[in-house]
Amino acid sequence: MLRTVIYIVALICLNSVIADTASSEKIVCYYGTGLSNYSTPLPPGLDPTLCTHLIFIGSTIIDGQIKPPKPTDPQMYYEKIPLMKKLNPELKVLLCNGGNFNGVLATSQNRSRFANSSLPILRKYGFDGLDLDFEFPAWNGLPKSQKHSFSLLLTVFSANYWVLKGMPKSKVVVGIPVYGHSYKLVFKSLHGVHAPSYGRGDNGGYVTYSQVCKYLQSNFTRVFNERCQVPYMYKDHLWISYEDEESINIKANWIKSHGYPGIMVYSMNYDDYSGVCDGGKTKNPLLKIINKFRL
């Protein structure tokens, strides 16, 4: 029921984005696009003052080039960058690309075409860099040669190739999820870690922190696993693992105490940005816990 996934992510930065903030703690926040409409100045749950770096999950690969997933995405998200930087002048905004890299990696011409297509969109809207989220090279039956091809793609963006692959600790940002996963229990009487399940819960098994609080308010039983230092909860045939203020505080403290320069959050819009958890008193409680470690 519990599993670990390693994400292949490369941050390609314009104008030395990471180096510009190397002397201070970094809070790197992902934000998932996909809304068709909203009435607020910024998309719901997006507070640029809580992050040093913001990564929009909002581009795909079409005909070997970087494109917005929807024609409305530039207006809904990209064009909000000036307002976000007005609210937080030190903010760096990157564009995440998580499309199908199979064709891109096939030849050197395709890799160059992909790289060249990224610069116009980044510069047009004022992005500070590009996040390549490839899940995953040479995985699930894909060619083993993709690992090498993906490295070649990165060299198109970075001549130093991550400083000859000897990346220093000062460049490592450790990620913390602010979402949960739900599963359907086979037997409601068996609800511990490793209990048998027969599938994911609603919404593909993803649970926001607002939903976590609603579940807890509806008499779910919370258990804190001392070995893993994370909570889970259950009721009837539903089992949910998640992060809360206690577990986030433990993780952020570990990252800080081990000398890592920053924390990545996936994703801002999974936090309780509307204040459900405490009756509207506190918004984005998990991000605010993380921000305490910037002091």
List the topology elements.
Elements: E1 8-13, H1 17-20, E2 26-32, E3 53-57, E4 60-62, E5 65-67, H2 73-76, H3 81-87, E6 92-97, H4 108-125, E7 129-134, H5 146-157, H6 161-164, E8 173-177, E9 180-185, E10 197-200, E11 206-207, H7 209-217, E12 221-225, E13 230-235, E14 238-241, H8 245-257, E15 262-266, H9 285-291
Parallel strand pairs: 2-3, 2-15, 3-6, 6-7, 8-15
Antiparallel strand pairs: 1-7, 4-5, 9-10, 9-11, 9-14, 12-13, 13-14
Structure description:
By secondary structure, the protein is an alpha/beta fold. The protein folds into two domains: 23-137 and 154-178 and 243-294, TIM Barrel (Alpha-Beta Barrel), CATH 3.20.20.80; 179-242, Chitinase A, domain 3, CATH 3.10.50. Helices cover 26% and strands 25% of the residues. The chain has helices at 17-20, 73-76, 81-87, 108-125, 146-157, 161-164, 209-217, 245-257, 285-291; strands at 8-13, 26-32, 53-57, 60-62, 65-67, 92-97, 129-134, 173-177, 180-185, 197-200, 206-207, 221-225, 230-235, 238-241, 262-266. It has a seven-stranded mixed β-sheet with strand order 1-7-6-3-2-15-8, with helices on one face. Strands 9, 10, 11, 12, 13 and 14 form a six-stranded antiparallel β-sheet that branches. Residues 1-9, 15-23 and 160-164 have low confidence and may be disordered. Keywords: Glycoprotein, Glycosidase, Hydrolase, Signal.
